[in-house]
Amino acid sequence: MDAKTHWEKVYTTKEPEAVSWYSAHLEISLALIERAAPSRSASIIDIGAGESTLVDDLLVRGYENITLLDVSQTALEATKKRLGLHAQQVNWNVADITQVELEPFAYDVWHDRAVFHFLTSNEQRAGYVRNVAKAVNHGGHVIVSTFGPEGPTKCSGLEVMRYDAELLHSEFGTRFRLIESLKELHRTPFGTTQQFLYCYCKVE
Ligand SMILES: C[S@@+](CC[C@H](N)C(=O)[O-])C[C@H]1O[C@@H](n2cnc3c(N)ncnc32)[C@H](O)[C@@H]1O
Predict the structure, then answer these.
(1) 160 ligand 1 Cβ < 6 A
(2) Which helix (H) or strand (E) covers residue 167, if one does?
(3) CA neighbor of 45 nearest in space, from 138, 110, 133, 115
(4) Measured between alpha carbons, how far is residue 192 from residues 1, 153, 164, 187 in Å?
């Protein structure tokens, strides 16, 4: 089953708050985005946004230039519906991040929570890195969050990669200067915990 088929099935069969990655507020992501982009006109892309509440919280904080990308149309449609009229303030992109061609230098902040770790082949990771290297402005920031070294080995029935900061940073190359990494114990809606790793990088 390809990625799109898998994720469309997930989002047509599961409620938004019944998936292991659900969080009412992505506090670490929000703090890092505010640190990377004090200006509310900053251009922010959320890769694999799914049905995440991050966009709601960014709009409340006054961010004006948000793009949500996901391989699942169903997930983005659900988010659009949830936002109501505010959906018009957001740019929408249904695409596979490993294959799409993003605009060069279009974004000041690249955010990805729990997408990169699903890329288990070299080709997929190369496609992703090509896009992040092309689409983020010089001086922009990249926030990528994956399962940490003690995180799960599977998610949503799929095999995942687990990263420490050094390994994750090494996937991106020397133009990405690692400013900070941190770990989080995410509490799932089922009461279990999952270790996440965040890398916060500046693009030279
Ligand atoms: C575990 S969910 C995380 C969703 C959201 N980032 C969050 O933290 O709530 C992974 C998301 O990545 C999307 N995804 C998976 N592979 C993708 C790909 N190759 N390109 C774009 N989106 C992808 C899925 O549809 C799903 O919404």
Answers:
(1) no
(2) helix 165-172
(3) 110
(4) 28, 14, 21, 6
Query: Which residue among 46, 70, 154, 186 is best mutated to probe the pocket of ligand 1, counting the most ligand atoms within 8 A of its Cβ?
Result: 70
Low-confidence ranges of the chain (pLDDT < 70): none
- Whole-model pTM? 0.98
Q: Which two tokens stand for residue 93?
A: 């992109």
Spell out a b/e string for 23-58, using b for 16 or more CB atoms within 10 Å of the CB, else e. Answer: beebebbbebbeebbeeeebbbbbbbbbbbbbbebb
Q: Hey, what are 147's tokens?
A: 């399962």
Q: What is the CA radius of gyration of the chain?
A: 16
Residue 164: is it exposed, middle or buried by C-beta count within 10 angstroms (0-12/13-18/19+)? Answer: middle
